[in-house]
Amino acid sequence: MGGKPSDIPFGGACLWRFAGDACCAKRARDALGSVMAQLGFAPDMIDSGVLAVSELATNSHQHAGRAASASADMVELWVWARTHPRLELVVAVFDGHRDVVPCPTPGDVLDEHGKGLGIVGALATAWGWHPSRSRLAARPVLGKATWFALPLPPVWPVPRRVIAPSVAAERLHSLLGSRGLAVTRRSDATGISVITSCALDIWVTPGWFAWRNGSGYDRHPLLDLQEAAESVVRKVEADARSLATSSEPRRG
Predict the structure, then answer these.
(1) Cis peptide, bond prior to residue 85, ω within 30 of zero
(2) Which parts form a coiled-coil structure per UniProt (predicted)?
(3) pTM of the entire structure?
(4) Structural domain for 50, as ranges
(5) What pLDDT is attached to residue 112?
(6) Is the pLDDT of residue 113 over 50?
(7) Would 157 be classed as within a structural domain?
(8) Is pLDDT above 50 for 114?
């Protein structure tokens, strides 16, 4: 396990890496249940989280053996909190099977594993998937992250200190670099930093991470460090995939 549950309200995350075998769903249930209990979630919300993560881990296990390497057949569980646009706990299961797209199917709600991603949608405030990169592999593995979000408990610690943009920039730079992205960082006299990765410029200003996304901007509070890092990885990987697809020769 990487990280401590007590760090999650302050921009941290808890991370695990499991073998993508028949036991990974139980390991994911146990890990998430323990973290949610330590964070003060109500028992019924813990039950919802445990059931949802069991479905995601089971899906990852069912695709085991299709990856090109043993490292890609490992499953990772990531848990962090975000404050924008809502106060939510984000739970993500990563696997190395980017070509296998999660697809909701009808299932029995009372089944131990949920039988279909429909149960995840019924239990969570939101869920989805996107191309991503491993966080715990010795060398970054390309794959996908399937995630869901749950509302945070009514009583949630609120950091009282102001986060310095320079510190936030250093942390984001480190997180992106650990995912195998080439990153640079520069700062000016005002304290504003710019992190560049794969032609994407991320401005780190008092209060916010921000970058262009089409005609607008994506913005994340500095406290949402983990959410910002995953969003950057998602955009970089999606842009790379789009570029590769557009570069393929047309047939016919």
Answers:
(1) yes
(2) none
(3) 0.90
(4) 5-151
(5) 47
(6) no
(7) no
(8) no
